[in-house]
Amino acid sequence: MKARISYPDHFHKSTMKSADEIKRTCRSFESHSNRDYIVKQNGNHIWLEVAEDQQQVWSPLLHLEVSDRSGQTVVKGQYVENPVLWVFLLVMRTVAFVSFVASVLFLYVKISASEPAGKELLFMFGAISLWFGLALLAQWNRRISYKQAARLHDLMENIVA
Predict the structure, then answer these.
(1) How many Å apart are CA 139 and CA 159, to the nearest integer?
(2) Cα gap 40→48, rounded to integer Å
(3) Residues of the chain whose pLDDT is less than 50?
(4) In angstroms, rounded to a whole number, what is the distance separating the alpha carbons of residues 142 and 21?
(5) pTM of the model
(6) What's residue 1's pLDDT?
(7) What's the confidence (pLDDT) of residue 144?
(8) What per-residue confidence (pLDDT) applies to 102?
(9) Of 38, 73, 33, which is closest to residue 54 (Cα–Cα)?
(10) What whole-number distance in Å separates Cα of residue 89 and Cα of residue 131?
(11) Domain of 51?
């Protein structure tokens, strides 16, 4: 059984290749119709993702920034979520937060007026549950996208090394 390597969200990598060589390698990937990966480049930024027919909602993207520093090329990498999924999770977290704050305010008003506040407590519990559910969804997303992240990491190693 192969040991699972953990990929951090952000990483730095030094390479002996120059930034121009890395860009040429990316252009060759772009020009050839590669069925397994999509490679996009703009200036010093490179985006790697799996091919469209293999993409799922949870598919990660790998963003690379290439820079030359004192004779050495440094590649900064960051794994990011699919932008559609990222926006969905951001909006839902905002909804959960606003719902929680609203329920706390309504709870305060009900308690101040000496009225029963069961619905407000239930709503507050629902907002907290939604928040933690979204956190669990994000962790699940990271776990199931591991194989694709490993493939992107291998492609990055081929381009950079």
Answers:
(1) 29
(2) 7
(3) 1-3
(4) 31
(5) 0.75
(6) 40
(7) 86
(8) 96
(9) 38
(10) 10
(11) 1-161
Distance between CA atoms of residues 134 and 44, nearest Å: 34
CA angle 22–156–72, rounded 5-degree value: 45
What pLDDT does residue 7 have? Answer: 63
Number of domains in the chain: 1
The tokens for 20 are 């121009």
Per-residue pLDDT, 109: 94
Q: Are 22 and 159 in contact (CB under 8 A)?
A: yes
How far apart CA 156 and CA 62 sit, in angstroms, is 8
The candidate with the shortest Cα–Cα distance to 53, out of 29, 36, 30, is 36
Chain position carrying tokens 């030094």: 14
C-alpha atoms less than 13 angstroms from C-alpha of 59 in its C-beta half-sphere:
15
Write down the pLDDT at residue 80: 86
